[in-house]
Every structure is written in C-alpha cells, then in structure tokens.
Design goal:
The complex is a heterodimer. Chain A is α/β, with parallel strands linked by helices. Helix content of chain A is about 25%, strand content about 35%. In chain A, a hairpin with a 2-residue loop joins strand 3 and strand 4. Chain A is globular. Chain B folds into two domains: about 100 residues, no CATH class; about 280 residues, Cytochrome-c3 Hydrogenase, chain B. Helix content of chain B is about 50%, strand content about 15%. Chain B is built from 15 helices and ten strands. In chain B, the strands form four sheets. Chain B has a three-stranded antiparallel sheet. In chain B, a hairpin with a 5-residue loop joins strand 7 and strand 8. In chain B, helix 2 packs antiparallel against helix 3, helix 3 packs antiparallel against helix 4 and helix 6 packs antiparallel against helix 11. The two termini of chain B are about 35 Å apart. Classes of the chains: A alpha/beta, B alpha+beta. At the A-B interface, strand 3, strand 4, strand 5 and helix 3 of A face strand 6, strand 7 and strand 8 of B.
C-alpha cells in the first residue's frame, strides 16, 4: 500500500519529492516549502491518508515540520517533512483544507512560532494566555 | 439572542484539560469553541531531559487510565529506531495488560455515562465490575495504575504461572457481567431514548476531523491499529473490530460494550497461548534515527514519535493522545442538540467527566444562570421525562 502511494507520489511530483523508505511500514518524504501544500493536500485528498499528528522541532537547519500520514489499509505511516527558515518561519496551512490539521497547527504555532498562512483559527492553543505573544517555549534561539 | 456557556477549564483526571464555550439559543446549541492547555505540563520538553528508560515512567503519567498505552507506544517508537524484535513472551504479556486496560477504561466510561443520564444502577454496576479488573492488573504488574511494566525491548518483570487461573476466573465473571450490562442497557427503552439519534457525527465529519477509536468506529469508520498495523500478539489471536454505522451516541456506546467482549476473548487466547522464553530484547544503545510507535488505546490511536541523536536521551519526543484528535469532533456532534444532551455529546468521546461538574451557564454580564448541578439535573430530568412517557 505504502509502496503504491509512494510510486504515485513520485510520478506526480517527480524530483520535487525526496522519498526515503526506512522500512516496509515507514517512509519519509522531504519537500521544499513551496511544494508543502500541494504535497500534503495530495496525501489527504487523493491518497486518503489520515493525518495522525504532526511534529514540529527546532533544529540547527531551521524549524522542521513533519506531518505523519497514516495509511490504515496497509498499516503504514508516510511522513512528509519540510524545513522553514528562522527567525520567522512561515508556511501555508493544511487546516484550511483538512480540519484534522487545525489543532496541531495551532500547537506548532504556539510552541515554535510557525505562522500558518490561511489557518482558519490562528490562536495559541496550549500555552498560558498570559504569556507574551512572541514566547514560543520549544524554540532554541539564544 | 444567543447565550454563552463556558465549560471547564480544569479536568484533574483527563490527560488533555479543555475549556469549552457553548453558544446557545434557548435550549439549542448553535456552536462550540474549544480551548485547551489550562494544565499543560510540558512533557515533550521534559522527555528530552530523561533517558529512554526514564521516559517510560514519564509518559505513562500522561494519563492514569491509558498508562499502558503511552508506555507501549513510546517503547515501540524506540524499537522502531533500534530495529529489534521483541521476544514472543513479552509481546503476549504486553497484549494482556493492554487489553485489561481497555476493559477497565470502557467499564469506567459505561459507569460515568450512566451517571450522566441519571441511571445510578448502571453507574454502580459499572464501577463495581471494574474493580476485579484492577485487581487482575495488580496481580500481573504490581500496580492498579501506572504499571511501570513496559520498557523498550520487552517488559520489566516476568509473571509466575500460578496467577493465570485467578485471572481467568476474574475474566469469566467479568464476561457474564458485561452480557448482563449490555442486555440491561440495550433493552432499556429509556436509555435508548436518551442515546439513539443524539449527537450525530457523520462518517464524513469523522474522517475530516481525524476521529479515532470508538468515536470513529461508532461513525462507521473502520480503523483499528491493532488490525491495520498489527503489533503485540494481535495478529496471532482471533478477534473482530467492532464498527457501527449509527453515527450517534448509542453507536459509540455499543462499540465500547462489544469491544469489552472482544478484549476478554483476546486476553483468554493470549493466556492460553502464552509462550515461554525471555521477556526482554536487551536494548543497550539507541542509534541515531527516527522512530514511530502507534497503538490502539481504549480511546483511539496513541501516537509517539522519537528522534534519537545517538545519546541515551531522545532529541525530540512527540506524544499525541487520542483525545487531542477526538475533542474537535464535539463541534459537529453538539450542533443543534439541546443543553441537556450536550453533556452526553462530551461524554461520548470519553474525555473526563469532571467537566460536567464545572459547567455553568452565564448571561453576557457574567451572572450565573445555571450551575453545574443544574446542568446535570437537566440531563436527569430529560431521562425521567422519557421514562414517564414510555
């Protein structure tokens, strides 16, 4: 199942996607910022992947987004990754097209300061409301 | 003019506290806004300062009810990085404890649902029948909750064979009680009147909102990680995924009741087939890499992602409990319902019910119109009304 998904993904997006299959059930796809919304939308709308959750992390290269798409029919997880430039990471919002991304994108905005353009409800979600607006606890900036 | 009803924010038992505001016009709910994070504990950052072994003790404290689920998912994520095979005996022991956890979690829900609709007998029965399951968990792991039982590579302690007859006896008795309770609930016209057709979550909404576990399966979405990506001993025993297409509160209740029967079946087969041998793969070092562990907790899929930098502590540990995905489904479910049914619409995703004791109705100036007790009373009165009319 995952193999077929990845083959179709490669056919559609060509060398704009870098696909690494770590095991029979786990694959990691890296895309550039401009291909983020086309690829993640494709995973949900065309391939019917289920957004299990998303991981945001502050790494030396920038703020990394990793969206985990579960394909329940085949028991696989395909992870789509992109890295955003600091200090003001910004990317299109998947929540606009897929409500399941709503809460988790708000969490990544809250903790890492990633601005999701077009998000239907761009508010903080977990950190205390009396914290300053630019306080993002998982950022590792000096 | 619409009125706002704030609910929450504190939920001492729930892993994800929530603050919900309902917009109502008279008795009818027009919409809902959900705000989490009033009791955020920063566990993802904490996990980065602990070793992989210590992490397990941390993640099982995400939730007292699902403590086996989180520790198993985190262990699977580490095993995914290492690429090791877990010994068969450990896989079976893990499955037994996990299914016992499902039994007590579902039974807890049945009891609390009974409380909300004013069926004290269901509440008393549910919680009474749950106790022996906690005793069984204590016999196996040493604790009623927070088992400290799972570890990356296997389980922490072995179990003497003489406890299994006692556990089987508990399960036999529990099985009879589940039948009794299922019959009592599904044959009761008043309970059916309260649950049937209430809190509709369509299949399309369940998929779009990423609903999980019984919440999704009650809306006809056929997903279950235990079958879809088999882990533990699930592929080696005979059981069924329970799916109902009613899309209402009754369908979710039926899923939970029938899943208890399946869980008993799974545990009995695991005890019967329990292999001998080692209980731990003996993981010593975790190499650089990324790993994912996801399992079917009682409320739905629990998801853990770990990135290792080759040290004995994770560089990033993402944890996502099922309620995080299930809470947004409350929005479409509660729309158009009455305030007395709003409680059920929360309860059906199996979050914490303490919120119902903290729910108040205020007018725009902040004056309290309905106290938490009033809201529970409204729900009980509706049950009484249906009872009188039936």
């Amino acid at each position: 199942m995952s193999k077929e998904v990845l083959e179709r993904l490669k056919t559609k997006f060509g060398d704009r996607v870098d696909v690494v299959e770590r095991s029979a059930r786990r694959a990691y796809v890296t895309v550039a910022n401009e291909d983020w919304i086309p690829v993640t939308r494709y995973m949900y709308e065309e391939e019917r992947g289920r957004l299990c959750t998303a991981t945001g992390s502050d790494r030396s290269t920038g703020v990394e987004l990793l969206y985990h798409f579960g394909f329940d029919g085949g028991g696989t997880v395909v992870n789509v990754r992109t890295t955003l430039a600091k200090p003001f990471p910004k990317i299109g919002s998947l929540a606009k097209y897929y409500p399941a991304a709503d809460f988790i994108e708000r969490e990544i905005f809250d903790f890492l300061g990633v601005e999701f353009e077009g998000h239907p409800d761009p508010r903080k979600i977990l950190s205390s409301h009396d914290r300053p607006a630019d306080f993002h606890p998982m950022r590792r900036d000096e | 003019m619409s009125t706002t009803i704030p609910i929450g924010p504190f939920h001492p038992v729930l892993e994800e506290p929530e603050y919900i505001t309902l917009e109502v016009d008279g008795e009818t709910v027009l919409g809902a806004d959900i705000d989490l994070g009033r009791n955020h504990r920063g566990m993802e950052l904490l996990a980065e300062e602990k070793t992989y072994d210590q992490d397990i003790f941390l993640v099982e404290r995400i939730c007292g009810i699902c403590s086996a689920s989180h520790s198993w998912a985190a262990s699977l994520a580490v095993e995914d990085i290492v690429g090791c095979e877990v010994p068969a005996r450990a896989r079976y022991l893990r499955t037994i404890v996990h299914e016992l956890e499902r039994l007590h979690s579902h039974m807890l829900w049945v009891g609390l649902a009974g409380h909300i609709i004013g069926y004290w007998t269901v509440f008393m029965w549910g919680w009474k029948y749950r106790e022996p399951i906690l005793d069984a968990l204590e016999m196996i792991t040493g604790n009623r909750q927070h088992y400290a039982w799972y570890r990356p590579g296997g389980v922490r302690r072995d179990v003497p064979d003489e406890i299994w007859p006692k556990i089987l006896k508990i399960l036999d008795e529990f099985d009879t009680k589940v039948d009794l309770l299922t019959g009592a609930i599904l044959d009761d016209p008043v309970i059916l009147g309260r649950l049937k057709g209430v809190g509709i979550l369509t299949t399309e909404d369940a998929v779009a909102y990423g609903a999980l576990g019984p919440t999704a399966r009650g809306s006809g979405v056929d997903i279950d990680v235990r079958r879809d990506e088999p882990y533990g001993a699930y592929s080696e025993v005979d059981w069924n995924v329970i799916v109902q297409d009613g899309c209402d509160c009754l369908a979710v209740a039926v899923v939970r009741l029938l899943e208890m029967k399946e869980a008993v079946k799974i545990i009995k087969q695991c005890i019967e087939k329990l292999p001998g041998g080692p209980i731990d793969a003996g993981i010593r070092d975790v190499p650089r890499g990324e790993g994912i562990g996801h399992i079917e907790a009682p409320r739905g899929e629990t998801f853990h992602f770990i990135r290792s930098n080759g040290t004995n502590m994770p560089e990033r540990h993402k944890m996502r409990a099922p309620t995080f995905n299930n809470i947004p489904t409350f929005r479409p479910r509660v729309k158009g319902e009455t305030i007395s049914d709003a409680l059920l619409c929360f309860a059906v995703i199996d979050p914490c019910y303490s919120c119902t004791e903290r729910m108040t109705v205020l007018d725009p100036s902040g004056k309290m119109l309905l106290s938490p007790k009033d809201l529970l009373r409204l729900s009980h009165e509706k049950t009484e009304q249906i009872r009188r009319n039936s």
